[in-house]
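ping. complex inputs:
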Amino acid sequence: MSLPVLSVKHLTKQYGDFLAVDHISFEIEEGQILGLLGPNGAGKSTTIQMLLGLTDKDGGEIQYFGRNFDTEREYCLSRINFASTYAELNIRMTVYQNLRIYAGLYNVRDYKQRITELTSILEIEECIDKQFWHLSAGQKTRVILAKSLLNRPRLLLMDEPTASLDPDIVSKVIKLIKSLQEKENITILFTSHNMDEVSQLCDSVAFLAQGKIVINDTPHELTKTIGHAKLTLSFDGDKKMIEDFLMKMSLSAYYPHAHLLEISLSETEVPTILFGLKEKGIEITSIQIEKPSLEDVFLHISQHQTI
Amino acid sequence: MKWHRIQTILLHSYYHATHSKETWIDLFWMTAIQFAIFGFITQFLAKTTPHFDMFLLLGFLLWEIVRIGQYCVTVSILWEVWSRSLSNLFISPLTMGEMMTGQAIAGVIKTLIVIGFLSILSTFAFHFSILDLGPILIFYIVLLLFFSYAAGLFITGLILRFGTDLQSLAWGLIYLYEPFSAVFYPIEALPPQIRWLCYLSPITYIIESARTQLSTGHVLVNYLVISALLTSAYFGLSILFLNTMYKWSRKTGAFARLGN
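pong. complex structure:
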């Protein structure tokens, strides 16, 4: 069995009395995309900073490709990279010059070819000779993405790479990341506040709350842990009969209108409710089922700090 | 340390300098204008005081070596902070030692370009050539540059510790040394109570030696030895200080905040 690309064991960071990261452990396998989620102050940024060596850890161990990050820092850093809208490039230099510099730092020997290839894939050829500070937010994001792919990283850490972008550009960037990940078989650690992005991109998600990993699972399994779906029905019939029926099922409903009801229930209960109402002679004119989303999980964890 | 990364920092410095008007204005334009003004004043004063013009121009040129060298080291880091790109640099395999070494080498080149230009201007416009000092000038320049780097590393350490609140020190702190380094006047010109401060500055010994050399032809070797020892001490302490501040800023998360 191959070694995990990243293995984190009991990673800890304390700022004075505040325990920002509390003995977290997780692994990322080759080709996997792991989403690191959590409310503000949960410890995501501190974790990423420690993984990149920008902030020193207080305890625990970080291993990239089976190598200890503390003792083989250069080996590890030359094989990973980072993209974030909060970490930009030199504003006075042109896009090409910035990319040339990072190619040099990562010792990319075929840098001309690589820069041409990436600027073509990311559709930023037209701004190659523009100074970085003249670029639009979307162009900057794509240039930062190009920088993060220069050294053909085996692991890419992405900290809110689409923050502050317009929705249409976000969608484009997400598609781009997905296609790049498939093309170059990159392993990705991804943080975002946008749950749609995480659902689209990530194979598994680790939720952080108060510095701890509360749960680590696939997006699908995570939504199942919340369990509750929302069933909205339009009906013709006696409201009292419906209330009695739901009471027997130990369910309560909310009636926005006289012939509309909303029930919060487990997904498995939906067929029972629908058949039961039919048997009672209630005519259902429309049905809408909203499954729990990752956002519901996020909100649940943010409010309860646990699943 | 890896040479290819130091080379890349040199390239970085070249790219940045050629695209940043601010750098050109700070290093070249303002220096050249001030030098020209100085030159004309000294021409006027030299009519009443012999050698005065020579001493002022000499002081100006040697002081500028210190100012430009320090500026190059410190402001290069600040540009990355202003660009919010410091994190990106330091999540690459680049080390702080490589960054500082690269900027120091770039500083030598920039200093030589600016001082070279001023020297030509001085020779033709004001009839003073710093090359009259002979080969010992190289030793003067090396000591002054090392002292300037010591100051640059110290200020960089302060920026890592206190953030951009102290960024104006990148331009201002070195001027604390100017009155106490006998740049434009001999030590005896200062009140006796504060002359001891001059003996703490390695610049004093170099400029005193250079002045003596121009007027008598003798190099004050003992002064150069003292200057070299003081410069080594300043340089060693500044590396220690920068290293401590760098570790502190990584420990407290201040480095990551500074970078974003």
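The mean pLDDT of chain B is 92.
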